[in-house]
Amino acid sequence: MPRTEVDPRYGDPDAPATPWPVAERALSSAELYRLTTVRPDGRPHVTPLIAVWHTDALHFCTGADERKARNLTANPRVVLTTGDNALHGGLDVVVEGVAVRVADEAGLRVLAAEWESKYGPEWRFEVVEGGFANPHGTALVFRVEPTTAFGFAKSPYSQTRYRF
């Protein structure tokens, strides 16, 4: 379990910390995430994508020639965000970590099953050497274990930091 703390500067001073299991459920059940990587020239790059929460980490995939994959080659540090697009309710979660490539066949098979279970047969992936089959080549799969995460509750407002 991560160390949890509330920063009273960013919300109701009496708001409790959002428990990690609540943030973890939000990470697990979200359908869409935003991935932020850093371009070689230092500019940020943000893109929406789907992901799965499995064994205490978020997993996403991308084509080897896509901007985000090229960015990760130079700098594997990322931020993944998800949440509710509402001002007065819900929970937004931000995960900071390092994207590590998953290339072992057994791990890829488990993750392919996770994607299909969560998103349905439209997202059935065939495991090939080093990733998932993709019409344009191989989709690389990455694992991001949180190093730090934040939960932004919006009723009442609060900011909880999770340190791993």
Automatic annotation (TrEMBL):
Bias kind Basic and acidic residues: ranges: 1-12
Domain Pyridoxamine 5'-phosphate oxidase N-terminal: 25-129
Domain of life assignment: Bacteria
Start and end residues of each stretch annotated as Disordered: 1-20
Pfam families: PNPOx_N
Protein name: Pyridoxamine 5'-phosphate oxidase family protein
Entries under InterPro entries matching the protein: F420H2_bilvrd_red/Heme_oxyg, Pyridox_Oxase_N, Split_barrel_FMN-bd
Keyword Cell cycle: no
Statement: the UniProt record of this protein carries the keyword Oxidoreductase: yes
Entry keywords, A to Z: Oxidoreductase
